Amino acid sequence: MSGFVKTKYHLQSLCCGECIEDQNWELSCPNKDHIALLRAFYDDRQLVIDETLPGLYKFSSWLPVYKTLNGSGAPVTYKSEGLANRLGLKNLYITFNGYWPEKGALMETGTFKECEAYAVCARINSKDNGVMVVASAGNTARAFAKVCSENKIPILICVPQDNLNALWFTKDIDPCVKLIAVESGGDYFDAIHLSNLACQIEGFYPEGGSKNVARRDGMGTTVLSAVSTIGKIPDYYFQAIGSGTGAVAAWEANMRFIEDGRFGSNSMKLMVSQNSPFIPIKEAWDADSREMLPFNDEVARKQVEEIIAKVLSNRKPTYGITGGLYDAMKEVGGEVFEVTNQEAEEAGRIFAETEGNDVEPAAAVAVASLFQAALQGKVSSESIIMLNITGGGIEKYKSENKVAYLKPQLVFPLNPDPKSVRDQVKMLFQDLLL
Q1: 76-106+214-394 against 124-211+403-434: fold identical
Q2: What are phi and psi of 403, to 5 degrees?
Q3: Contact, 334 vs 269, CB < 8 A?
């Protein structure tokens, strides 16, 4: 059942420090001094876990929400035995986001993008009568489609046509959800361009991506799950990244726990990974560059075609922006790992063998990076490690349920005519916007 919660918080700009109330779907500093993230500060300085609230919302004291929505699951953290023994790690904790009922993991889309969607759609929204617009490489689209369909929230979802196999569901999707795609050969960056054109239509507004505090703090519930289960802030945080937003969210949650005071005062080192040959964040970080290094669009698209973890294909990551991944890693330390398709596939197989459930390719990339770190001595056998499995149990879920794939209402070319996009998209929602 949906309901109401009373989270008290304010937003602060990381460029000038101004504090603002969250009333008008704020995504950036009102002073527009320069591009920077907003951050939520909660009146509850210590985390309060309310087990009477459903799913993710048990963490609502550190979520910028005012209500609960139907269907939410939550991250589940447990101490590894099988994989830990394989790697000689005594304190490996796995935070599982996906479908694994035996462990209490009930995210039916099989991805931690549900954490984002349930938080974003429960945030105070002055634009409730409009159409939210989301761009996605696949998993985010599936999560937002589920949440918005079940809770009757109008949304336009933009994806690359080559990633439509990620849009699987077990229930009919409500007409309030519309899907459009960019033709084969396009990638996530092209889907973002399409979404930006749609946002020019009156009544349409951007979900905001990494600039949306609810998206980041929704992702941050993975760390809330881990720390509250372990009883201590981990030494290392492992995750595969596309935009880097999840790692930024982990850093922000870490800072809140330090202020909480009950779980230690250390900062987790951010051990993040990308799927080779598409490694723009690694290349920028290794060059100690705040800015992304120049690259050819066609080369980037070709690299995206090659990787198995398509959801990691972000050419416009949350990296150099103030408060982004570059700042996070400069403050706490860490490394960006490069993982090949073969390494990821092998890591995924070993995870299934040792832990007992399947993981999606991006999560397998994270597992492979942990293998690299352990074998290279970058973590010790005593280190407290959080491995964020950002998606899993998908094959398990599909084996237990009949799935159908959502098809796009419109497919646009790589360089679409802006007016044509606006006119056609507006027609999709003509009944909803009357």
Answers
A1: yes
A2: -115, 155
A3: yes
- 10-residue averages of pLDDT along the chain (434 residues): 84 92 90 84 98 96 96 97 98 98 97 97 90 93 97 96 94 96 93 96 95 98 98 98 97 98 98 98 98 92 94 92 97 98 98 98 98 98 98 97 96 96 95 69
Whether pTM exceeds 0.90: yes
Q: 76-106+214-394: what fold?
A: Rossmann fold (3.40.50)
Our CA angle for 350, 356, 357, nearest 5°, is 90
Topology of 124-211+403-434 in CATH?
Rossmann fold (3.40.50)
Q: Are 160 and 305 a contacting pair, CB within 8 Å?
A: no
Long-range contacts of 19-27 (CB under 8 A, 24+ apart): 22/64, 22/123, 22/124, 22/213, 23/124, 23/126, 24/126, 25/123, 25/124, 25/125, 25/126, 25/127, 25/205, 25/208, 27/206, 27/208, 27/211, 27/212
Place of tokens 């439509």: 164
